[in-house]
Amino acid sequence: SLNVTSGEIRSVFLKHESCAVPSEDVDGAQCRGLCAMMWYTLYDTFYGTTQYSYTNVLAVPFGPTPWLYDETQTIRRAGTWYLTVHGLPGIEAEFELQVLLLPPPDPPE
Known about the structure:
By secondary structure, the protein is mainly β. It has one domain (2-97). Helix content is 4%, strand content 41%. It has one helix and ten strands. The protein has one helix at 22-25; strands at 2-7, 9-16, 26-27, 30-31, 35-39, 41-44, 49-52, 55-56, 81-87, 93-97. The strands form four sheets. Strands 8-1-10 form a three-stranded antiparallel β-sheet, with no helix packed on it. It has a three-stranded antiparallel β-sheet with strand order 5-2-9, with no helix packed on it. A hairpin with a 4-residue loop joins strand 6 (41-44) and strand 7.
């Protein structure tokens, strides 16, 4: 989880094997490839306002059958994962970060 304690940020990325580059890794509102993301800044086109989020949890989902690894059903992979915090131009931010590594659950009996 990432908790912004001061200022605002744009987004957070968790990407396999390299740091995320928003201009290359985001398609619409989604992260491409072996990447998960969470928006912390949203622009409301109806009201013309910007909305900020200050606490979120970013997780790489296990997929539909977490006890049976299938790389076609999940982006989970062994290896190095990089966390990228994407800031906003001219805005400083401070945050607290808590990282948990969760093993997949046991299969049903």
